[in-house]
Amino acid sequence: MSSIKLINIAKQINAKLHGDGDIIITNIAPIYSANNKQITFLSDNRYINYIANCNAAAIVLKEKNLYACKIAALVVENPYIAYAYIAQMFNNTPLPAEYIHPSAQISYDAKIGNNVSIGANSIIETGVIINNDVIIGAGCFIGKNTQIGKETRLWANVSVYHNIEIGQQCIIQSNTVIGADGFGYANDNGNWIKIPQLGRVIIGNKVKIGANTTIDRGALDNTIIGNGVIIDNQCQIAHNVIIGDNTAIAGGVIMAGSVRIGKSCMIGGASVINGHIDICDEVIITGMGMVIKSINKPGVYSSGVPLQLNKDWRKTATLILNINLINKRLKTVERKLNNQNQKKQ
Questions:
Q1: Catalytic annotation on 162?
Q2: Are residues 125 and 79 in the same domain?
């Protein structure tokens, strides 16, 4: 268990210290359950009433909320970002692997850098290049001629197909598949003819990919994931998709082929994006969004009908199904009113 003086935490996150800097902090916890050895944080004013009964050793908060605090405090501009950095200080997640396990099968011509760890039963095929300080968990498959940049980590059972390029300092969670064939078929009089997927997947630096996500290889050109992109669990990224730097994609998102997404976008969970469309930089799509055409202006976009009582939803559905009839009737009424007004004039 880590033990860090409060003053040292303050220095590392550039916070203003209020109270005893010699307090020893052993962990971080929520505001409603933290004990006197833990530090907590307040980033949402909806939880400000918890401060009065908070048992934490210290709290991270904004200057405007310091008045309510009776314990040691670290004052910062953004408590949530401070929380992220503090959580890293107390991170006790074990490494995916700690050495090259004897059962790992590594091709004779694979190039393995310094301080590389490869877990049990992993397979490294011919022509693979694994750079310094890479960690590959148990049961992973790294296909022919794939390159993995330094300090990247793959958790157990990740499959990386052939000719894939993964950048530096990436994290890929378990059971993710990178470089599988895209959904490419031609219909010949009812028979589906498979189109070989000849492109690659190129992943930039500092990309984070969640568990059970699939990123398909390109059909001819490459599927490209930019630097700093974060992708949640169980997402489907189809062939020839291009995702710009620092875009965030929440869980369960499905992208059809040849989508182009700009930089610094945020795609809400369970959203579906149609193929062959472009989304510009700095677009936010809220959860369960259905994107069927290109977006060329930054902003927040939403779709779908929020949850209702079933009896209310039935009424809403009836209105939607009859929207064309309602529209025709409205136009008829408008024409009659316009005619009456013209006669009066």
A1: no
A2: no
pLDDT per residue as tens digits for the range 155-187: 999 999 999 999 999 999 999 999 999 999 999
Last residue of a domain, one of 89, 113, 133: 89
Query: b or e along 215-228 (b: 16 or more beta carbons within 10 Å of the residue's beta carbon)?
Result: bbbbbeebbbbbbb
Among 129, 136, 117, 138, which Cα is nearest to 165's? 129
DSSP state, 100?
Answer: B
Judgement on whether residues 152 and 282 belong to the same structural domain of the protein? yes
Q: Are residues 139 and 211 in the same domain?
A: yes
Which pLDDT value is given to residue 56? 97
Can you tell me which residue has the tokens 């909806």? 46
Greater pLDDT, 330 or 283: 283
- Amino acid (one-letter) located at 229: V
Looking at every residue in the chain, the average pLDDT score rounds to 96
Residue 99 is assigned to a structural domain of this protein:
no
The closest of 143, 255, 240, 259 to 199, measured between CA atoms, is 240
pLDDT band at 192 (very low <50, low <70, confident <90, very high): very high
Torsion of CA 70, 72, 75, 80, to 10 degrees: -90
DSSP structure class, residue 136: E
Catalytic residue (choose from 101, 162, 239, 276):
239
Q: What is the pLDDT of residue 341?
A: 81
**CATH number of the domain residue 22 falls in:** 3.40.1390.10
Same-domain check for residues 274 and 201:
yes
Answer whether 0.70 is exceeded by the pTM. Answer: yes
In 12-89 the beta strands, taken as DSSP E runs, fall at 16-18, 24-25, 27-28, 38-41, 58-61, 72-75
> For the residues of 209-228, what is the DSSP string, one character each?
E-TT-EEEPPSSS-EEE-TT
Q: State which residues form the domain around 338.
A: 310-344
Q: Which residues pair with 224 in a beta bridge?
A: 202, 242
